[in-house]
Amino acid sequence: xxxxxxxxxxxxxxxxxxxxxxxxxxxxxxxxxxxxxxxxxxxxxxxxxxxxxxxxxxxxxxxxxxxxxxxxxxxxxxxxxxxxxxxxxxxxxxxxxxxxxxxxxxxxxxxxxxxxxxxxxxxxxxxxxxxxxxxxxxxxxxxxxxxxxxxxxxxxxxxxxxxxxxxxxxxxxxxxxxxxxxxxxxxxxxxxxxxxxxxxxxxxxxxxxxxxxxxxxxxxxxxxxxxxxxxxxxxxxxxxxxxxxxxxxxxxxxxxxxxxxxxxxxxxxxxxxxxxxx
Length: 278
Description:
Distance between the termini: 60 Å
Largest sheet: 8 strands, parallel, barrel
Shape: globular
Number of domains: 1
CATH topology: TIM Barrel
Number of strands: 10
Order of helices and strands: HEHHEHEEEHEHEHEHEHEHHH
Strand content: 15-25%
Radius of gyration: 18 Å
CATH superfamily: Aldolase class I
CATH class: Alpha Beta
Strand order of the largest sheet: 1-2-3-6-7-8-9-10
């Protein structure tokens, strides 16, 4: 039988951490976990500089692996680190997209994390194991009041096209994260506000969009972010477009103008240009 005072404390801790990570229900999260999967990565050569720039820009959270977390938390004493506990590398052949669990909630908490993150690649060879790992993570995280971000991507060779789904599996990705117990979900942009609205309507948890490859101008990225917010999205979990930019602080401030200050696109772009020039 659950101890009621203990359960209430865990729920209170969970709510408090979510409020810190998602002020006003929206989040500006910057992942920098890419170096584990493949390195070198443009923009992540000096992570101390990137972390300082992102914090200065006003990010709500930085998502990173536990070694990076421990180093940066000790160095900065900042309280917005989310520990990503899923890992694989580009050298694993057909298993390159099969993530394994490399940390646990208690360890992440001890290292200074305020939240947890796990990944599932729908349709990949190891999907079943990844789903199980994410479920275990939400179970353990809930037990200590730690919110979990589910990074769920429909991208594997076994992905099934479901009739009538114009989100390309993204709505299913969000639904999986919600139903397995995640507090927040990160998914790819679907390509249109109409289809992304269906993703947001599929779940009652905040939906953050991934940035994808760094092949668009940041003005174009801001336009996508604005569309996602208008469709019901709750912000971004966006890495390469930020840490690979000439001025990461300016990029974060421009995102902040859209996500938290609720400025329009033109104002955000002008703000970005002012920051770069300044």
